[in-house]
Give the backbone structure.
Amino acid sequence: MAGSSCNGAPSLEAVPSHGQPFWLLAELTYKCPLQCPYCSNPLDFAGHDGELSTAEWIEVFRQGRELGAVQLGFSGGEPLVRQDLIELIREARQLGYYSNLITSGVGLNERKVAEFREAGLDHIQVSFQAADDEVNAMLSGSKKAFEQKLRIAREVKAQGYPMVLNFVTHRHNIDRIDRIIELCVELQADYVELATCQYYGWAYENRQQLLPTRAQLERAERITNEYRDKLAAEGNPIQLIFVTPDYYEERPKGCMNGWGQVFLTVTPDGTALPCHSARMLPIEFPNVREQSLEQIWHRSTGFNHFRGDDWMQEPCRSCDEKEKDFGGCRCQAFMMTGDAAATDPVCSKSPHHDQIVSARRQAELGSIESEFIYRNERNSRVFYKG
Amino acid sequence: MIDQASVPSLNPMFRLQWEPAQQAHVLLYPEGMVRLNGPAGEILARVDGQRPVERIIAELALKFPEAEGIDGDILEFLAEAAQQNWVQL
Ligand SMILES: C[S@@+](CC[C@H](N)C(=O)[O-])C[C@H]1O[C@@H](n2cnc3c(N)ncnc32)[C@H](O)[C@@H]1O
Ligand code: SF4
Ligand code: SF4
């Protein structure tokens, strides 16, 4: 890809070519009946009201498809809170999207699972907090959620959908990884995301209570590999996806496959972002109410900001790995250094890498006494300085 | 060896469609996509749980008369597609 277009007078030639947004993530609402303390949603979500209407979402989908987007994710918050979800599903199918419902399962029932299928929904991903009732209730803030999730997962398979089960893993559930995998096998998942918690949003606030130790992680990865071999030998097509945690790496992840390269997120109020977490950055992002997706993707300052490598500082600027990881995650750089253009502190070459090392050390010392800050409206108002 | 009389079908966990933006057939699955090259797309577009392998071969031989050894290529691709779990034989 050519360099960024942030410098110099704009001209047609200066418009960078960066392909199409393959993935459109529609965060339909920030409302959610659960309150996971690891939630990656923005801390100040309570301050962003004024959700897009049905017609506005449909127009976003139409424009996204024109830009070449193929995958459409319905997420949030809890997308099932939107009463017009079935209409949006129907429209997505007509436009030719492959549509994914990303849900906690709370608010689904047998009838809706069937109706969504008929309307053209392609896939349902159900997230769990843990593989047992007690820990699930402790993390989600709901006593009934676990039973509900089991019921829904069975129904999703009964209706013939491909099913992904998602578990965000952390120090409170990672030691039960064997039980998690067995539950997924029993529920006949097609894919299992063992998603090591990423520390954004609420998860960053609760990091000390969530970050596992290296020993916990290594054990979990080893057990996952043993299950992979065993399940493959039994001819079970289930796929276990183990997302490695960058806090225990010496190099950052190639975040979002590069800024503004394949992902486009639209938040409940219409703000368009290159990743679902970018809202926290001190950058102005465009809104679909004011600009077309085509303008947003190709020409907005927000999307061009970290394209290419002109924005990079040392040590990234002269590093021969910059094509591989693009200097890491912009949100992580900003949260830890206060500078969104800094090297991601996960990189051992970063002058701020000691913050990662001390978080690992903290994890070794054990969980501290303080309690989780749960993701809910009341707590969110504390973070909203509108 | 694939039996020419067998009737392949697409694994229902995948969706096949023509993508105008990419001028290619693509196989879609949860949060992912495989972009198929021309011949692969032509073959999979005929895998419908109705046509036996021999008919798929005959149709493509008619459509691409200049292609030599087309039946071998088709059988090889179908075996590969079954291996990938895209197709059930
Ligand atoms: C923000 S949720 C919204 C959809 C729905 N409420 C749910 O939880 O499934 C989207 C997905 O991100 C996952 N997730 C949430 N916080 C995360 C974090 N800090 N790290 C990794 N995945 C996370 C959830 O488990 C879910 O699969
Ligand atoms: S991760 Fe939990 S709190 Fe966050 S939106 Fe999903 S269910 Fe709600
Ligand atoms: S210095 Fe920058 S480009 Fe080099 S490996 Fe570290 S994060 Fe990546």
